Amino acid sequence: MVKQVTAVTLCSDFSKNLIQSDYFFMSALKGQSMYSLRRKLKPEHVKELKGKINDYLAQLHGIKGDYFGYFTENPDHQFLTWKEGFHHMLHLIVNGGIRQTYRYGFLYGKLQYRYAKHNGEYLP
User: Fold this and answer.
1) What pLDDT, on the 0 to 100 scale, is given for residue 70?
2) pTM for the full model?
3) 101 HSE (CA, 13 A, CB side)
4) Domain boundaries in the chain?
5) End-to-end CA distance of the chain
6) Which parts of the chain fold into alpha helices (H)?
7) Side-chain half-sphere of 36: how many Cα atoms within 13 Å?
8) What is the pLDDT along the chain (124 residues), one digit of tens a residue?
């Protein structure tokens, strides 16, 4: 769907022949990042590049789906609101980190507490 409505190059497979999940890859751009060149570029070039980036993002943001969350047929990963989808993804990341004992440079309990405090909710 992304390739049909945007100029972004992309590879996808929803057949589950290679990987037992739907997936897509966006192409990486060749060259140097704009951040690494920011002091070398003239202001008018920066403005032009930002305009092109905005055009690509507008195309991607123009894609409308039936739900928020992962590209999947599994209803457990489909949500009616962006907030519900984000909450679910954050929950999976935190719990995955706890299970795998990954260290992101912060305590998971502290992250859960701050998230809950900010949203007036509890992150299970």
Assistant:
1) 83
2) 0.49
3) 0
4) 2-61, 69-119
5) 34
6) 2-5, 34-37, 43-61, 82-100, 108-119
7) 3
8) 555 555 655 667 777 787 776 676 766 667 888 888 888 999 999 999 899 989 988 887 887 889 998 878 889 999 999 889 988 888 887 777 777 666 666 666 777 777 777 776 654 5
Residue the block writes with tokens 């980190």: 97
Q: Which two tokens stand for residue 123?
A: 């992150």
Question: Angle, nearest 10°, between helix axes 108-119 and 82-100?
Answer: 160
Six-digit token string for 61: 């943001």
Q: How far is CA 92 from the centre of its chain?
A: 14
Q: How many residues does the chain have?
A: 124
Query: pLDDT by residue (tens digit) across 95-124?
Result: 777 776 666 666 667 777 777 777 766 545
Task: Reduce the DSSP state of residue 30 to 3 states and report it.
Answer: coil
Q: Are 99 and 92 in contact (CB under 8 A)?
A: no
Structure tokens given for 18: 């290679």
Side-chain half-sphere exposure of 50, counting CA atoms within 13 A: 9
